[in-house]
Protein backbone atom coordinates (compact mmCIF):
# COMPACT_ATOMS: atom_id res chain seq x y z
CA UNK A 1 0.00 0.00 0.00
CA UNK A 2 2.87 2.37 0.82
CA UNK A 3 4.54 1.72 -2.54
CA UNK A 4 1.37 2.61 -4.47
CA UNK A 5 0.99 5.92 -2.64
CA UNK A 6 4.55 7.05 -3.23
CA UNK A 7 4.43 6.30 -6.99
CA UNK A 8 1.08 7.93 -7.82
CA UNK A 9 1.28 11.05 -5.69
CA UNK A 10 4.13 12.72 -7.65
CA UNK A 11 2.26 12.09 -10.89
CA UNK A 12 -0.86 13.72 -9.53
CA UNK A 13 1.04 16.73 -8.21
CA UNK A 14 2.83 17.13 -11.54
CA UNK A 15 -0.42 17.13 -13.47
CA UNK A 16 -1.96 19.56 -11.00
CA UNK A 17 0.95 21.97 -11.41
CA UNK A 18 0.34 22.09 -15.16
CA UNK A 19 -3.45 22.25 -15.28
CA UNK A 20 -5.82 23.47 -12.55
CA UNK A 21 -8.93 23.07 -14.76
CA UNK A 22 -9.61 26.79 -14.59
CA UNK A 23 -8.88 28.01 -18.12
CA UNK A 24 -12.29 29.72 -18.09
CA UNK A 25 -10.88 32.48 -15.85
CA UNK A 26 -8.32 33.33 -18.53
CA UNK A 27 -11.10 33.44 -21.12
CA UNK A 28 -13.22 35.66 -18.85
CA UNK A 29 -10.32 38.06 -18.46
CA UNK A 30 -9.90 38.26 -22.25
CA UNK A 31 -13.61 38.95 -22.81
CA UNK A 32 -13.59 41.69 -20.17
CA UNK A 33 -10.58 43.32 -21.81
CA UNK A 34 -12.33 43.17 -25.19
CA UNK A 35 -15.42 44.94 -23.84
CA UNK A 36 -13.25 47.77 -22.53
CA UNK A 37 -11.41 48.24 -25.85
CA UNK A 38 -12.52 49.96 -29.03
CA UNK A 39 -15.18 48.10 -30.98
CA UNK A 40 -13.70 49.35 -34.25
CA UNK A 41 -10.57 47.29 -33.68
CA UNK A 42 -12.62 44.17 -33.06
CA UNK A 43 -14.81 44.73 -36.14
CA UNK A 44 -11.78 45.22 -38.39
CA UNK A 45 -11.14 41.48 -38.32
CA UNK A 46 -14.55 40.90 -39.90
CA UNK A 47 -14.39 43.52 -42.65
CA UNK A 48 -10.93 42.62 -43.98
CA UNK A 49 -11.97 39.38 -45.77
CA UNK A 50 -15.21 41.04 -46.92
CA UNK A 51 -13.23 43.82 -48.63
CA UNK A 52 -10.96 41.22 -50.27
CA UNK A 53 -14.02 39.33 -51.49
CA UNK A 54 -15.60 42.42 -53.00
CA UNK A 55 -12.37 43.56 -54.65
CA UNK A 56 -11.04 40.22 -55.88
CA UNK A 57 -14.11 38.02 -56.11
CA UNK A 58 -16.50 40.48 -57.72
CA UNK A 59 -14.12 43.04 -59.22
CA UNK A 60 -11.38 40.82 -60.64
CA UNK A 61 -13.78 37.91 -60.94
CA UNK A 62 -15.81 39.73 -63.58
CA UNK A 63 -12.77 39.45 -65.89
CA UNK A 64 -11.75 35.90 -64.95
CA UNK A 65 -15.08 34.13 -65.16
CA UNK A 66 -15.50 30.59 -63.86
CA UNK A 67 -12.82 28.35 -62.36
CA UNK A 68 -12.67 24.65 -63.19
CA UNK A 69 -12.36 22.29 -60.21
CA UNK A 70 -10.37 19.01 -60.26
CA UNK A 71 -13.59 17.02 -60.76
CA UNK A 72 -14.34 18.95 -63.96
CA UNK A 73 -17.12 21.18 -62.64
CA UNK A 74 -16.90 24.97 -62.91
CA UNK A 75 -17.76 27.52 -60.22
CA UNK A 76 -17.78 31.33 -60.20
CA UNK A 77 -14.46 32.90 -59.23
CA UNK A 78 -16.04 34.59 -56.20
CA UNK A 79 -17.28 31.21 -54.92
CA UNK A 80 -13.77 29.81 -55.47
CA UNK A 81 -11.87 32.40 -53.43
CA UNK A 82 -14.49 33.12 -50.73
CA UNK A 83 -13.79 29.96 -48.67
CA UNK A 84 -10.06 30.55 -49.08
CA UNK A 85 -10.45 34.06 -47.67
CA UNK A 86 -12.43 32.58 -44.80
CA UNK A 87 -9.54 30.20 -44.04
CA UNK A 88 -7.03 33.05 -44.32
CA UNK A 89 -9.14 35.13 -41.94
CA UNK A 90 -9.08 32.25 -39.43
CA UNK A 91 -5.30 32.05 -39.74
CA UNK A 92 -4.74 35.80 -39.41
CA UNK A 93 -7.06 36.22 -36.45
CA UNK A 94 -5.66 33.23 -34.58
CA UNK A 95 -2.04 34.14 -35.26
CA UNK A 96 -2.54 37.80 -34.29
CA UNK A 97 -4.19 36.91 -30.98
CA UNK A 98 -1.64 34.22 -30.16
CA UNK A 99 1.50 36.15 -31.18
CA UNK A 100 1.42 39.94 -30.82
CA UNK A 101 -1.09 39.95 -27.97
CA UNK A 102 0.69 37.12 -26.19
CA UNK A 103 4.09 38.76 -26.73
CA UNK A 104 2.91 41.97 -25.07
CA UNK A 105 1.32 40.13 -22.15
CA UNK A 106 4.43 38.04 -21.68
CA UNK A 107 7.18 40.66 -21.90
CA UNK A 108 5.55 44.01 -21.12
CA UNK A 109 2.27 43.49 -19.31
CA UNK A 110 3.81 40.70 -17.20
CA UNK A 111 0.34 39.20 -17.16
CA UNK A 112 1.45 35.57 -17.17
CA UNK A 113 3.74 36.14 -14.19
CA UNK A 114 0.66 37.22 -12.24
CA UNK A 115 -1.52 34.38 -13.54
CA UNK A 116 0.99 31.66 -12.79
CA UNK A 117 1.54 33.07 -9.30
CA UNK A 118 -2.01 31.87 -8.56
CA UNK A 119 -3.36 28.33 -8.70
CA UNK A 120 -3.44 28.48 -12.52
CA UNK A 121 -1.06 26.21 -14.38
CA UNK A 122 0.67 26.83 -17.72
CA UNK A 123 -1.85 24.61 -19.54
CA UNK A 124 -4.70 26.73 -18.10
CA UNK A 125 -3.05 29.86 -19.50
CA UNK A 126 -2.32 28.29 -22.90
CA UNK A 127 -5.76 26.73 -23.28
CA UNK A 128 -7.51 29.86 -22.00
CA UNK A 129 -5.71 32.21 -24.38
CA UNK A 130 -6.32 29.91 -27.34
CA UNK A 131 -9.99 29.46 -26.45
CA UNK A 132 -10.45 33.23 -26.32
CA UNK A 133 -8.91 33.50 -29.79
CA UNK A 134 -11.36 30.84 -30.99
CA UNK A 135 -14.37 32.72 -29.63
CA UNK A 136 -13.31 35.85 -31.46
CA UNK A 137 -12.56 33.91 -34.63
CA UNK A 138 -15.89 32.11 -34.42
CA UNK A 139 -17.78 35.40 -34.49
CA UNK A 140 -15.81 36.51 -37.56
CA UNK A 141 -16.37 33.17 -39.30
CA UNK A 142 -20.11 33.19 -38.66
CA UNK A 143 -20.40 36.75 -39.99
CA UNK A 144 -18.39 36.01 -43.13
CA UNK A 145 -20.31 32.79 -43.80
CA UNK A 146 -23.51 34.80 -43.53
CA UNK A 147 -22.18 37.24 -46.15
CA UNK A 148 -21.29 34.29 -48.40
CA UNK A 149 -24.78 32.87 -47.99
CA UNK A 150 -26.43 36.19 -48.86
CA UNK A 151 -24.22 36.47 -51.96
CA UNK A 152 -25.05 32.91 -53.02
CA UNK A 153 -21.47 31.66 -52.67
CA UNK A 154 -22.23 28.64 -50.48
CA UNK A 155 -23.00 26.05 -53.13
CA UNK A 156 -23.79 23.00 -50.98
CA UNK A 157 -25.44 22.04 -47.68
CA UNK A 158 -22.03 20.99 -46.35
CA UNK A 159 -21.18 24.71 -46.07
CA UNK A 160 -22.78 24.52 -42.61
CA UNK A 161 -19.77 22.42 -41.54
CA UNK A 162 -17.40 25.21 -42.56
CA UNK A 163 -17.89 26.95 -39.21
CA UNK A 164 -16.51 24.10 -37.04
CA UNK A 165 -13.84 23.55 -39.69
CA UNK A 166 -12.71 27.17 -39.37
CA UNK A 167 -12.60 26.85 -35.58
CA UNK A 168 -10.39 23.77 -35.96
CA UNK A 169 -8.10 25.72 -38.30
CA UNK A 170 -7.93 28.67 -35.90
CA UNK A 171 -7.20 26.33 -32.99
CA UNK A 172 -4.26 24.85 -34.88
CA UNK A 173 -2.73 28.19 -35.84
CA UNK A 174 -3.29 29.67 -32.38
CA UNK A 175 -1.63 26.70 -30.67
CA UNK A 176 1.47 26.86 -32.83
CA UNK A 177 1.50 30.67 -32.82
CA UNK A 178 1.60 30.84 -29.04
CA UNK A 179 4.32 28.17 -28.89
CA UNK A 180 6.50 30.11 -31.36
CA UNK A 181 5.90 33.41 -29.57
CA UNK A 182 7.18 31.96 -26.29
CA UNK A 183 10.64 31.84 -27.90
CA UNK A 184 10.57 35.44 -29.17
CA UNK A 185 12.58 38.02 -27.26
CA UNK A 186 12.23 41.26 -29.27
CA UNK A 187 9.68 42.98 -31.51
CA UNK A 188 12.11 42.64 -34.43
CA UNK A 189 11.95 38.86 -34.15
CA UNK A 190 8.17 39.04 -34.46
CA UNK A 191 8.60 40.21 -38.06
CA UNK A 192 9.49 36.62 -38.96
CA UNK A 193 5.86 35.68 -38.36
CA UNK A 194 4.68 38.02 -41.13
CA UNK A 195 7.51 36.75 -43.32
CA UNK A 196 6.03 33.23 -43.07
CA UNK A 197 2.35 34.19 -43.27
CA UNK A 198 2.53 36.36 -46.40
CA UNK A 199 3.89 33.63 -48.74
CA UNK A 200 1.30 31.18 -47.39
CA UNK A 201 -1.45 33.70 -48.12
CA UNK A 202 -0.26 34.29 -51.69
CA UNK A 203 0.66 30.76 -52.76
CA UNK A 204 -1.64 28.33 -50.89
CA UNK A 205 -4.16 28.11 -53.76
CA UNK A 206 -5.98 31.10 -52.33
CA UNK A 207 -6.60 32.95 -55.59
CA UNK A 208 -5.98 30.23 -58.20
CA UNK A 209 -5.75 26.42 -58.37
CA UNK A 210 -2.57 24.79 -57.17
CA UNK A 211 -2.22 23.05 -60.55
CA UNK A 212 -0.67 26.21 -62.03
CA UNK A 213 2.59 25.35 -60.25
CA UNK A 214 5.22 22.74 -61.22
CA UNK A 215 4.95 19.43 -59.40
CA UNK A 216 7.76 19.99 -56.88
CA UNK A 217 6.35 23.38 -55.85
CA UNK A 218 2.95 21.78 -55.36
CA UNK A 219 4.56 19.36 -52.92
CA UNK A 220 6.01 22.21 -50.88
CA UNK A 221 2.69 24.06 -50.79
CA UNK A 222 0.80 20.93 -49.73
CA UNK A 223 3.03 20.70 -46.67
CA UNK A 224 1.88 24.14 -45.48
CA UNK A 225 -1.00 24.41 -42.98
CA UNK A 226 -2.87 27.11 -44.88
CA UNK A 227 -3.22 24.89 -47.95
CA UNK A 228 -4.91 22.23 -45.82
CA UNK A 229 -7.17 24.92 -44.34
CA UNK A 230 -8.13 26.30 -47.76
CA UNK A 231 -8.84 22.84 -49.19
CA UNK A 232 -10.92 21.84 -46.18
CA UNK A 233 -13.11 24.94 -46.13
CA UNK A 234 -13.37 25.17 -49.93
CA UNK A 235 -14.43 21.56 -50.24
CA UNK A 236 -17.21 22.09 -47.69
CA UNK A 237 -18.62 25.27 -49.22
CA UNK A 238 -18.47 23.92 -52.79
CA UNK A 239 -19.76 20.46 -51.92
CA UNK A 240 -16.56 18.65 -52.92
CA UNK A 241 -16.46 16.28 -49.94
CA UNK A 242 -14.26 13.18 -50.08
CA UNK A 243 -11.78 11.16 -48.06
CA UNK A 244 -9.10 13.84 -48.30
CA UNK A 245 -11.10 15.87 -45.76
CA UNK A 246 -9.98 13.45 -43.05
CA UNK A 247 -6.34 14.13 -43.95
CA UNK A 248 -6.86 17.87 -43.54
CA UNK A 249 -8.63 17.37 -40.20
CA UNK A 250 -5.88 15.04 -38.95
CA UNK A 251 -3.26 17.62 -39.95
CA UNK A 252 -4.79 20.21 -37.64
CA UNK A 253 -5.41 17.74 -34.81
CA UNK A 254 -1.68 16.97 -34.78
CA UNK A 255 -0.92 20.69 -35.07
CA UNK A 256 -3.09 21.42 -32.03
CA UNK A 257 -1.52 18.66 -29.96
CA UNK A 258 2.04 19.74 -30.73
CA UNK A 259 1.26 23.42 -30.21
CA UNK A 260 -0.37 22.90 -26.81
CA UNK A 261 2.42 20.59 -25.67
CA UNK A 262 5.22 23.00 -26.64
CA UNK A 263 3.37 26.01 -25.21
CA UNK A 264 2.75 24.30 -21.87
CA UNK A 265 6.35 23.15 -21.52
CA UNK A 266 7.69 26.56 -22.54
CA UNK A 267 5.48 28.54 -20.12
CA UNK A 268 6.46 26.19 -17.31
CA UNK A 269 10.16 26.68 -18.12
CA UNK A 270 9.81 30.49 -18.32
CA UNK A 271 7.70 31.18 -15.24
CA UNK A 272 7.74 28.19 -12.88
CA UNK A 273 11.10 26.41 -13.10
Summarize the model shown.
The chain is mainly alpha-helical and 273 residues long. It is 77% helix and 2% strand.
Q: Your description of this structure?
A:
The chain crosses the membrane at residues 39-65, 77-95, 155-180, 192-210, 249-267. It comes from Cellulomonas humilata. Its main location: membrane. Belongs to the ABC-2 integral membrane protein family. With 273 residues, this protein is an all-alpha fold. It has one domain. It has eleven helices and two strands. It has helices at residues 2-18, 23-35, 39-64, 77-107, 111-116, 122-150, 162-181, 187-203, 215-222, 225-238, 244-271, and strands at 66-68, 74-76. A two-stranded antiparallel ribbon has the order 1-2. Strand 1 and strand 2 form a beta hairpin. The longest helix is centred in the middle third of the chain and has 31 residues, at 77-107. The protein is elongated, with a radius of gyration of 21 Å. The two termini are 31 Å apart.
**Domain count:** 1
Q: Could you say which structural class the secondary elements and strand pairing correspond to?
A: mainly alpha
Q: What is the number of E strands?
A: 2
- What is the CA-atom radius of gyration, in angstroms? 21 Å
Task: Please tell me the overall pLDDT.
Answer: 83
Strand content is under 5%
Provide the succession of SSEs: HHHEEHHHHHHHH
Number of helix segments? 11
Sheet with the most strands: spatial strand order: 1-2
Amino- and carboxy-terminal Cα gap: 31 Å
Overall outline = elongated
Low-pLDDT residue spans: 1-13
| Helix content bin | over 70%
Sheet with most strands: 2 strands, antiparallel
Amino acid sequence: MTTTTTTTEPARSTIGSLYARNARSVVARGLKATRSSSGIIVLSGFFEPVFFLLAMGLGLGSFIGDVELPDGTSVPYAAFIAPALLAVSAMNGAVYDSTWNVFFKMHFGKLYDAMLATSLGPLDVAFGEITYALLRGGVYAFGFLTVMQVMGLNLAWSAALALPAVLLVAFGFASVGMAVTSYMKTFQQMDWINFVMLPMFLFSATFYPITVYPGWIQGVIKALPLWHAVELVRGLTLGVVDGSMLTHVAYFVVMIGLGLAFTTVRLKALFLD
